[in-house]
Design a protein that fits this description.
527 residues; alpha/beta
Length: 527
Amino acid sequence: VIYAARGVVTMTSEDEPADAIAVQDGRVAAVGMLADLLEHHRDTEVVELAEGVIVPGFHDAHMHLAETAEDLLNVDVSPPGAPSLAALEERLRARAQVTPPGDWIRASRYDDSKTGPSLLTRHDLDEVSTDHPILVVHVASHWGIANSLALAAAGIDESSEAPDGGGYGRDAAGQLNGMVLERSLFEFLYPGERDPVVPPSSQADRLDGLAQATAMFHAAGLTSVVDAFVSPEDVDLLCAGAESGAMSLRVDVLVGHEHYDWVRELAPGAGLAGDQVTLGGVKAFLDGAIAGRTCLVEEPIRGSDSHGIQTLATDELHELVSRVGADGHTLAVHANGDRAIGMLLDAFEAEASRTGRSRRHRIEHCSIVTPELVGRLREIGASAIPFGSYVHYYGRQLEEWYGEERVGRMFAHRWLLDAGVPTAGSSDYPCGPYEPLLGIQSCVTRRGADGELVGPNQRVSAREALALYTTGAAAVTGHAHERGRLAPGYVADFAVLGANPLEVAEDEIASVPLLATYVGGRRVWPV
Ligand SMILES: [Zn+2]
């Protein structure tokens, strides 16, 4: 089949003028001007994409696909639908009315910085229901708010001590306010030493959620994603989705390090569902979140004396880096703050000097850096996966939390690219907006939705930003030989846009309409 359009952005170094691509067996056979392609492919069917512009399919190097599948089954309390606590409670009350007493009510994407006027507490949730355990998870997924019944289900009472790496929020009087942080939240949701407190949804429900998530991401032009924190059960779900056709994204998985025994049985990069779902590496967390104001920083968070929290002990980190590295797997460590990134580089450097070689490990988010840290990143050969759409999403709040000087070295795409550090675009959805065109615009303009300029010294060009979500993500994930470009032999994954994002005004990139998305030469959106 030949797809003919107004233009093709190939993302190859030549980037010669092209308006058509020929596709055979799911791969690109040729790219060029339609007249030339027709000479070599005489009897080929031509699909006219009319005014469309073809770009390589977008690749999000860090997001949460299996979690999204689950989230789509939960009550959505993100700010557009729940701009106030009253509206949030209304949404939960509606779900309570159709939920049998005793069954859990879960809500996702609560954002305390946008849903006011005050922090949600267990008491607000007790007003919604005392017959249902309720857990509301913050958009960054590092903390949540439980009602009294949910706390009781987890065995948490006023005298409980939080586990290492976790925490319970308390009010001014020292009473539990319902907040559960980090590991204490994870104990609700994920299997660990114990079963999760909240019973998982059925596989049939999750597959339904996965199909919805897939459609949502294809509609934004995404063809490949990294699911950045999965359990073996999540992998089963993704593989079942791939095999049944409910899930048509290409997915690399980063498996939580607590499941390392499971990973060890696999070869690095192993195919888990053909080559559609593959093992990307092992995931660990070293600190908290940017939006949670819990990342580990050298200078205290503004307006407090907190340096954030470290969620993995330093000796455990070193042990993990050497164990995972020795087995040849990629280690992907969540490190937002400059202190956390420095500690992680210490561990990578220690491994390199001990073994005489360095692995291409990943630093997830790698949010707050210094020129010195960027230099060390380049030396050790690690990849950086900064947030692409956080500037747009948080705008001036970033400055309020971290100060003007620090936001100038936050999501430092300019510095990372200039240093030659392999750098990929990512949304961390559901923590940030998933639309790649919005992420690209955010990296180009460094403007929040509120119009605020945030660290404009880190601006990149539209082509560099598009590269983050195509060639950059392909390079970081080890797929550079067949994804990220439209060239002979590459997979025929592409998006058809209503305008060329490299030619429109920089504040109009996010508004470029998406006309269609193809994976392996097959149209997956619209269907
Ligand atoms: Zn994440």
